[in-house]
Amino acid sequence: MVKGKGDSLWDLGIEQHAKLSSDSSSEEKHLLVLGNKNAGKTTLVLRFLDRDETPKPTTALEYTFGRRAKGHNSVKDVGHIWELGGGANMCKLIDTVISAKNVLDMSILLTVDLSTPNDMWLTFEALHSYLTNRIETSLTEAARKDNSLWDKVTARVKERLGGDHMDQEMLESCKVPLVIVGTKFDLFQEFDPEKKKVIVKSLRFLAHTYGASLIFTSVKIESSVNKVRSLISSLVFGTQTNKSIQMDHGKPLVIPAGSDSFQNIGSPPLPDSDVGSISARSPVELWKQAFTKYFPQNSIRNKHADDPSKDVQFSEPVIDKLRLEKDNELDRYRKASERKMIELEKQAIQDGLM
Predict the structure, then answer these.
(1) How far apart are CA 7 and CA 284, in angstroms?
(2) What is the sign of the dihedral through the CA atoms of 129, 135, 139 and 140?
(3) How many other CB atoms are found less than 10 A from the CB of residue 87?
(4) Are the C-beta atoms of 331 and 86 separated by less than 8 Å?
(5) First CA to last CA across the chain, in angstroms?
(6) CA-CA distance, 107 to 33, in Å (whole number)?
(7) Residues 6+ positions from 153 with CB-CB distance below 8 Å
(8) d(CA 248, CA 200)
(9) Residues 296, 120: contact at Cβ < 8 Å?
(10) Side by side, which strands form the sheet with 213-216?
């Protein structure tokens, strides 16, 4: 054996030990899955975790986790997965999941049901708005202890978009990784071609504007499910994912963040007769008006509006009493969810999972 200067067996042993030690620390990532009611969120999570279970409706906020071996070591990375049920009606529970402690390790998977476009825009809008505010609040709190945090966030966003992008000055990129998943592609394929075009263009616009990846899937198309699984794995375990791009709306879309452009997407799907009659304060508002002309939106509960039930002119003593009991019940549930989260993390630490 020929040894260079300082390359004794002891030196080599120390070097190897140092290398193994650097690879032996477990990493933790967090993923929040949310979106339209009955959009298949639970199914996506179960398929990612390789669990052969019958999906059950998510009533509020549910937690699970996945583990993945790190190299040849016994140490495993942990992916904490949170699923929010109830569409946009449980937004406040997002505060339980996203905090200053984990926001830099958080990713978002936001599902939209392609088969129900009349529920699509308003639900997305409400969830995205609440998410954005919560993420900003958490980052601001975290920045109090790290003066370089905003520089790190900006660098990460730029990296996700593949460097300098031609549209970067017009983007409102999410500060954490965001993936928009269009589910039930098989039902979507039965739509009129013009309607499909409107949905595809609108979702491409939203995804690009917010610096998100966009992918369509169906449980009946195994290849599309595998692509979603690969994408989730890249979010929670940092694995490599296929960089292929699919923009043909006759097939399940696959458009990684930063791969699209406003030039390729084109203009909003508005009839020529409506172009001059519509006024909008922003491009997003213009696209919303175009989309809702084709697909009038069903109303959703708006958490940010004044609550009419608290107006004295609508007072109903019996109903108001029942409402108060339900509000208290929900508040207790939220607090119990927070305690359960802490207990689960403690248990995972005791079991050596974290």
Answers:
(1) 62
(2) positive
(3) 21
(4) no
(5) 41
(6) 9
(7) 104, 139, 175
(8) 9
(9) no
(10) 61-69, 76-84, 28-35, 106-113, 178-183, 213-216, 254-255
Run of H or E including 193: helix 193-209
Residue 190's CB: how many other CB atoms inside 10 A?
A: 8
| Residue 89, helix vs strand vs coil | coil
DSSP annotation of 327 reads H
Q: CA-CA distance, 194 to 338, in Å (whole number)?
A: 45
Instruction: Give the separation between CA 100 and CA 139, rounded to whole angstroms.
Output: 6
Token pair for 159: 């990296």
| Antiparallel, parallel or unpaired: β 213-216 and 254-255 | antiparallel
Q: Which helix (H) or strand (E) holds 30?
A: strand 28-35
CA-to-CA separations, 82 to 58, 63, 141, 313, in angstroms, rounded: 11, 5, 22, 40
In contact, 104 and 142? CB cutoff 8 Å: yes
* Amino acid at the residue 338: E
pTM: predicted TM-score of the whole model, two decimal places: 0.78
Per-residue pLDDT of the chain in tens (354 residues, 90 and over written 9):
444 445 665 666 556 655 554 555 778 999 999 999 899 999 999 999 988 888 888 878 999 999 888 766 667 889 999 999 988 888 999 999 999 999 999 999 999 999 999 999 999 999 999 999 999 999 999 999 999 999 999 999 999 998 888 998 899 999 999 999 999 999 999 999 999 999 999 999 999 999 999 999 999 999 999 999 999 999 999 888 877 899 988 899 999 999 999 999 999 988 765 655 677 789 999 999 999 999 999 987 644 444 545 544 446 777 777 888 888 888 888 888 888 888 877 777 777 666
The strand pairing partners of 183, in sequence order, are 113
Instruction: Name residue 12's amino acid.
Output: L
